[in-house]
Amino acid sequence: MDARLLDILIQSFPKILLPGIMVTIPLTVLAFAIGLVIAVVTALICFAEVPILKWIARFYIWVIRGTPLLVQLFVVFYGLPSVGILIEPFPCAVMVFAINEGAYAAETLRGTLEAVPHGQLEAGLCVGMSWWQIMRRIVLPQAFRTAFPALGNELISMVKDTSLAANITVTEMFMKTQRIVAVYYEPLALYIEVGIVYLLFSTVLSYFERYGEKRLATYGKR
Amino acid sequence: MAVLSVKDIKKTFNHENVVLDGIDLTVEKGDVVAILGPSGGGKTTLLRCINFLETADDGTIEFDNNIYSFKDITKKEIANIRKNTAFVFQNYNLFLNKTALENVTEGLIIARGMDKKEAISKGKKMLEKVGLLDRCDYYPNQLSGGQQQRVAIARALATDPEIIYFDEPTSALDPELTGEVLSVMRQLADEGMTMIVVTHELGFAKMCANHVMFMENGKVVESADSKEFFENPKSDRTKAFIKAISTK
Ligand SMILES: Nc1ncnc2c1ncn2[C@@H]1O[C@H](COP(=O)(O)OP(=O)(O)OP(=O)(O)O)[C@@H](O)[C@H]1O
Ligand SMILES: [Mg+2]
């Protein structure tokens, strides 16, 4: 590797990492957190079979999981302005990623909610607890525990998917790299470099995921 | 004074499967009522309807001197009745994410708003009563079936119910573990606890129940004082059942 290329790579590293820390990570964390809230509500609606709302929930999951994330981003960012709804790039990305994650995590949680042995709900009712108290204290914790590895995977995919936000003018790591490439014209080396930064992020996350899984309560199960 | 009085309770599943066909049952304070009968006779359904886990189609229930119709009892009334009753399930149904002690205190702290310290001391007392104080911090998955069922009984006792319903509390247990659960139940019976016990344990019914109800196909075949029921059964069906089950 010649000295010029090495120099470019070293100089651009902080320039790529900075939007990684300032944009990619906040985008991921915010969208994932909001997505989880959406997922819990949606999964509970499906689980409790709330009339009407359950159809809305299923429709939401069906549409979101059946269309590309990139299309969803474009519809909201480039499409909605034509009906007068203009959203800034970053909040728009947070919103779309959250809605997208919400649908996937809702399916995950719905599955694990249904896997919690049903008798515990009846036992809770019999000791006088309300449906919501039982959900909050007994059923949801167990469902989350089972869903943890799957949710961890979804978080890791999301870190990588945030690169799609470049398409709606969010200056995250990938967009920043594209700009650097335009200046130095070293696509191979620079795109590999940004790939390595993504790899770094997801490696740290999977480490946390595994650590968390070990530390999480197993309720005495071996 | 009757703690519970159910009149003409009816339940049909799927519009055609009549599971409860007009059953009457009155339980006085301190009564231990054993419900016997062949599989599929509607025993579990009866208990589940009485505690509203299943919705009965017809009939009335008298509890705490109030009479409710199964058809139009409100959620609030159901919640009130449930706070004064307890249910012990065939397969324990312990909260798997809670320790033995937490299983017992949950209904006190969360459902009844009892002070945490008070609840814990009460919970420990209940676990001690069923002989499991040393298993306080164990999760259900770390307990044997018999121990789990005893925790479930402690959980039922903790809420000071006026009546406890047991649905075949020992059927899911290995034979060598049924004894420890039955002896706890015997102790409760001796202390005057009001209970309805669906069981196949004739020995328990003979020794602890003061009243026995035999049901089949959703109907009461025979209902009598325990002594009378076993020594002098009226119906041929009852005789045959007692014979079949005791030679098993
Ligand atoms: N949720 C349900 N939906 C439809 N049918 C049901 C349901 N629960 C019970 N049944 C039917 O009701 C009948 C009585 O069942 P139940 O469980 O009350 O009998 P049981 O006397 O408790 O029997 P066992 O001794 O085997 O426990 C059975 O024919 C069963 O198939
Ligand atoms: Mg049964």
Q: Key terms for this structure?
A:
A: 222 residues, MetI-like fold, 80% helix, 0% strand, B: alpha/beta, four-stranded antiparallel β-sheet, 10 strands, binds adenosine-5'-triphosphate, binds magnesium ion
Structural description of this entry:
The complex is a heterodimer of chains A (222) and B (248). Chain A has one domain: MetI-like fold (Orthogonal Bundle). Chain A contains 8 helices and no strands. Chain A has helices spanning 3-48, 53-65, 69-79, 89-115, 119-126, 131-161, 173-184, 187-215. Chain A is flat and about 75 Å long. In chain B, the strands form 2 sheets. Chain B has a 6-stranded mixed β-sheet, sandwiched between helices. In chain B, strands 2-1-4-5 form a 4-stranded antiparallel β-sheet, with helices on one face. Chain B is globular and about 55 Å long. In chain B, strand 4 (58-63) and strand 5 (66-69) form a beta hairpin. Classes of the chains: A mainly alpha (222), B alpha/beta (248). At the A-B interface, helix 5 and helix 6 of A face helix 2, strand 6, helix 3 and helix 5 of B. The complex binds adenosine-5'-triphosphate and magnesium ion. The site of adenosine-5'-triphosphate (ATP) has 12 residues of chain B, from strand 2 and helix 1.
Task: Note the topology.
The complex is a heterodimer of chains A (222) and B (248).
Chain A (H helix, E strand, L loop, with lengths): L2 H46 L4 H13 L3 H11 L9 H27 L3 H8 L4 H31 L11 H12 L2 H29 L7
Helix pairs in contact in A: 1-2, 1-4, 1-7, 1-8, 2-4, 3-4, 4-6, 5-6, 6-8, 7-8
Chain B lengths: L1 E12 L3 E12 L3 E5 L6 H8 L7 E6 L2 E4 L5 H9 L1 E4 L11 H12 L4 H14 L15 H14 L4 E5 L7 H16 L4 E4 L3 H7 L2 E6 L2 E7 H6 L4 H11 L2
Parallel strand pairs in B: 3-8, 3-9, 6-7, 7-8
Antiparallel strand pairs in B: 1-2, 1-4, 4-5, 9-10
Helix pairs in contact in B: 3-4, 3-5, 4-5, 5-6
